[in-house]
UniProtKB/TrEMBL annotation, chains A, B:
<dbReference type="Pfam" id="PF00440">
    <property type="entry name" value="TetR_N"/>
</dbReference>
<dbReference type="InterPro" id="IPR009057">
    <property type="entry name" value="Homeodomain-like_sf"/>
</dbReference>
<keyword id="KW-0238">DNA-binding</keyword>
<feature type="DNA-binding region" description="H-T-H motif">
    <location>
        <begin position="47"/>
        <end position="66"/>
    </location>
</feature>
<protein>
    <recommendedName>
        <fullName>HTH tetR-type domain-containing protein</fullName>
    </recommendedName>
</protein>
<dbReference type="GO" id="GO:0003677">
    <property type="term" value="F:DNA binding"/>
</dbReference>
<feature type="domain" description="HTH tetR-type">
    <location>
        <begin position="24"/>
        <end position="84"/>
    </location>
</feature>
<dbReference type="InterPro" id="IPR001647">
    <property type="entry name" value="HTH_TetR"/>
</dbReference>
Amino acid sequence: MRDLISTIKIQVNEKIYVKDPETSTLGKKIIKESILLIDDIGFDDFTFKKLGVKIGSNESSIYRYFENKHKLLVYLSSWYWNWMEYKLFFATNNIEDSFDKLKKAIIIVTEKIEDDEATKHINESVLNKIIISEFTKTLHTKEVDEENKEGFFLIYKNVINRIVHLIIAVNPDYPFAKSLASNIIEGALHQHFLRDHLTTITNCNENISPTDFYINLITTVLKK
Amino acid sequence: MRDLISTIKIQVNEKIYVKDPETSTLGKKIIKESILLIDDIGFDDFTFKKLGVKIGSNESSIYRYFENKHKLLVYLSSWYWNWMEYKLFFATNNIEDSFDKLKKAIIIVTEKIEDDEATKHINESVLNKIIISEFTKTLHTKEVDEENKEGFFLIYKNVINRIVHLIIAVNPDYPFAKSLASNIIEGALHQHFLRDHLTTITNCNENISPTDFYINLITTVLKK
DNA sequence: GCAAATATAATAGCAATACTATCAAATACA
DNA sequence: TGTATTTGATAGTATTGCTATTATATTTGC
């Protein structure tokens, strides 16, 4: 799987960037270092000027790759969910039993991420931290409907739809497969966030993981 | 209940504001019109300058009530969750059966909000729309840990804890009461958001509500 | 009813943000 | 080697997110 991911190019909607950052060393540097800088100072305080200083490049050069920092975050998110979809595919591909398959998928989308060494310019572990704390901001804008029409969130929706199909395979009579799937994806990020910051309103800690919570949830909810 | 709410003053942590907006007409105007303006143009584009123009007041006058727009949003959120807690209390107070009580509570926190005419300077229906699209931004900042220590999110956590107690009353053996409660509160906002913007990844629409989804969820999850 | 206290408005100003434009220098590539 | 493309450097603009100061209302306490 590691080798497969390193050869398959992660596809991101072309409208998200001005120039594809995968096509140059500066572009890859922008991706790599923006992940570290956003993790470090937070997306709200992140600017292209600061990123320029960090990578020893000019602000205006970064604008040649991304219109603004919002689009960069949408790009990083798309990259993350695309990578997640590959992981899902390879991890569940050879499982026969539909419930085991769903279970494996839930583990993949809710677990804490370790760095995948196959992608040298992206640290998935740090990217996962960004997704936990910043992903919601890609959706919660006044432009969400336009951007949705442009296909900015297609990859994210693909991941959810993959889970939807697995849920239906387990229990075709369950009437809320889509809501359950979107709830688990969003909810897992939220439980990770609560574990890190608002510890009194989650059961998740060093011993109990969001994965435990959601595996228990689907087991009872989809029981026939 | 309507009368009770109009007499009980909604309490908000004093550290959130510079001067209590409930103590003056300008303060109340700031609250009332900021809700409408944030709903109109979105929190990201909202500025004190624009609000000043809208209420025919000076930017600097608004700064005497709130340090910045983030604090104003935290204030509006606190007000909302405090109001929600009153609603929860009065709606569940006289119910004996623990499951009916929980069910009623879930209806209250997940349903679409109509304006409560008892509070003249706050349109709860519009405030609910803001909470759906902007509440997550109060938490997802680099300052979340400090602000949590200062008690900025106490009222929000109170609402969740109230649900936690109701869950435990229904099934004391269920091991994820806190995660379930925080998932439902956050998840319901998210399902409302998806219904409005990303309709393909939710079952919620004009006929099926987030309430239906979560009532079904607790019914199966907490079954003994 | 008047003085004192307080609240609000008006204006100015400053540093940072979020860009755009232009031109020069470096690099790639044919 | 010449040309195209990419990057860097510099400058500039409108807006944001404030703070400070002073003037003018408005409230209140006696």
